[in-house]
Amino acid sequence: MSRILALLYGFGSYAFFFVTFLYAIGFVEGLGVLKTIDSGTTAPLVESVLVNLGLLAIFAIQHSVMARPGFKLWWIRFVPRPVERSTYVLFSTAALALLCWQWRPLPEVLWSAGDPVVAMALTGLSLFGFVIVLASSYLINHFELFGLQQVMHNMTGREAPPPVFRTPFLYKVVRHPLYLGFIIAFWVTPSMTVGHLLFAAATTAYIVIGALLEERDLVAFFGDDYRRYRERVSMLVPWRKSV
C-alpha cells in the first residue's frame, strides 16, 4: 500500500507541475491564460516591486535550498527517499503557482515591436526557448528529474541506477541548456514592460547563481569528469570559450 501511495503521490506532483508549467508559459507569453505577467489589478510602484521581488525570492530560495545535498540528507529523515524528489517538485511548483497568482503587473511599455511579423517572430523565438527547456530535461532524464523514475522503481522494488555523467547533444554546446532556454524565453518578447524586465532580470540573476551552486555539487559528485567538461564547454553562452 505504501508503494502505491508513493506512486500516486509522485504522479500527482508531476501532474501539478505539468499543468502549472503550461500556465506559466502562457503567463510569460501573454497567451491563453486568465492572468499574465502584464495583466491584472495594478498597485503602487513600490508595493508592486517589493511583492514581486518577494515572490521571486520565495521561489529562488526554496528551489536552491531544497536542491542542496546537505538539505537532502536532513530532509530524508522526515520524507521517504523514494518521494523526496516528488516532494521537491511539489514545493517548487507551489512556489511557481504562487508567483503567477500573486504577481503585480507593471505594464508600462519600455520597448515594443511595431511590425506584426517581427512581433510574431519574437513570440515564436521565446516559445522556442521553452522547447529547449523541455528538450534539455529529456536529454538528461526527464522522469528522474521530476521524481517519476524514483517512485516507479520503488513500486517495482528495483534499485535506481547510479547517476552517469553524460553530455548529450545540447550539453555539448553549453553546460546548462535548460537554463539557456529559460533566458531566451524570458528576454525575447515583442513587448518589454517594466514588470517583464523585472521578472527577466531577477530570474537571470537567480539562474546564474543557481548554476554556480549546481556546478559546485556536480564537481563534488563527478570530480575530474566534470572539471574537464567545464574546461571545454561554456556555461550559458553557446560556443563561447569556457573560463
List the helices and strands and how they pair.
Blueprint: H1 2-29, H2 45-65, H3 69-75, H4 84-102, E1 109-112, H5 116-140, H6 142-145, H7 148-156, H8 177-187, E2 191-193, H9 194-222, H10 224-232
Antiparallel strand pairs: 1-2
Helix pairs in contact: 1-4, 1-7, 2-4, 2-9, 5-8, 8-9, 9-10
Keywords:
243 residues, mainly alpha, two-stranded antiparallel ribbon, 10 helices, globular
Short summary of the structure?
The chain has one domain. Helix content is 67%, strand content 3%.
The largest sheet, given as strand count, sense and whether it forms a barrel, is: 2 strands, antiparallel
List unreliable stretches of 5+ residues: none
Oligomer: single chain
What would the average pLDDT be, to the nearest integer? 94
Q: In what range is the share of β-strand residues? A: under 5%
Count of spatially separate domains: 1
> Structural class given helices, strands, pairing?
mainly alpha
What is the CA–CA distance across the termini?
Answer: 51 Å
Q: Report the radius of gyration as a whole number of Å.
A: 19 Å
How many DSSP helices? 10
Shape call:
globular
Q: Got a strand count?
A: 2
Question: Secondary-structure element order, as H and E?
Answer: HHHHEHHHHEHH
User: Widest sheet: strand order?
Assistant: 1-2
Helical fraction: 55-70%
